[in-house]
Amino acid sequence: MASNAHKVGIFSRDGRDNYNWLYLLLLSGFFKSVVTEVHPIYIANNNFHQFMNNVTQCTFAILYHSRKRGRLNVTNVTDSLYDMELEHLSTILGKKRVIVVMDDVENSSPEEKKRILQDQYSIGQLACDLFLFSEQEKRSCNMYASDPIWSERPTSNLLHDEYNSVVKKRKEMKEIVAGHKDQHSRDDPRGSQPLIRSTSYLNSPTDIVEISEPRAPNVCKLSNKNFFLIIIASIVVLIICLIVALTVKPIH
Q: Quick check: 137 and 100 in contact, CB under 8 A?
């Protein structure tokens, strides 16, 4: 067992039945090298003190929310459910040891993820990453079943894309838990580009400033400009000398 393996807490106002697939996935052999224990932790509305105690028993946190509750209202929106909890998890464990999972979504595409991160910007500020899972993705790997056991191949020929998507997310989640994943390089869809990238936040945590590499100066233009400046300066000096010569009286 790796020395840096984590005690993972799944924090949610949903019952464990909704995320049992995630609980069993984290206990599977795939995560064995990075996860030692998994603790389902229910967040009660009137017992924040107990929540704080539970956080101290974990070294990594997953904040879980299901669309089955009606909305994807984790933070920064009307009637958001986890504003204080997300901030506390990030404060105690650190941003790199917190991820947010939104489950049973209709659209789990990168575009939808970007939209959510823009609207619910605290997720990008306080958590390492956001994962979206659809029902079809879970069906594709048999994690939607009553007894979820990961399938090493798509459960249907019609679900190849969904299976590839969830395989990728499983791999990324493991790398984050292990502390080996570079968030910014993963989310840059363009790959390597000749750009100087600043990751300073602007209006939202997903804004990235792109500054083109500076171009080499035009030597000819600079040389011509300097030449004319020298000519003008020489003329000015000559005029001054003539004025001085004409105004100074000779000494007898």
A: no
Give the chain's length.
252
CATH number of 6-198: 3.40.50
Which pLDDT score, from 0 to 100, does residue 109 have?
A: 95
Residue with tokens 């001085």: 244
pLDDT in tens, 235-246: 877 788 777 777
Buried b (16+ CB within 10 A) or exposed e, 177-209: bbeebeeeeeeeeeeeeeeeeeeeeeeebbeee
With 0.85 as the threshold, say if the pTM is over it.
no
Q: How far apart are CA 249 and CA 252, in angstroms?
A: 9
CA atoms within a 13 Å half-sphere pointing along the CA-CB vector of 17: 3
Between the CA of residue 163 and those of 51, 141, 166, what are the distances in Å? 35, 6, 5
Burial 59-68, CB ≥16 within 10 A → b, else e: bbbbbbbbbe
* Cβ-based neighbour number of residue 172 at 10 Å: 16
What are the structural domain ranges in the chain? Answer: 6-198
Q: Where are the beta strands (DSSP E) in 194-238?
A: 195-198, 209-212
Predicted confidence (pLDDT) per residue in 68-124, tens digit: 988 899 999 999 999 999 999 999 999 999 999 999 999 999 999 999 999 999 999
Strand pairing category for 209-212 and 195-198: antiparallel
Radius of gyration of the chain (CA): 30
Q: Which of 146, 177, 142 is nearest to 38 (CA)?
A: 177
Tokens of residue 29, six digits = 């052999």
Residues of the chain whose pLDDT is less than 50?
1, 184-222
Whether 68 contacts 18, CB under 8 Å: yes
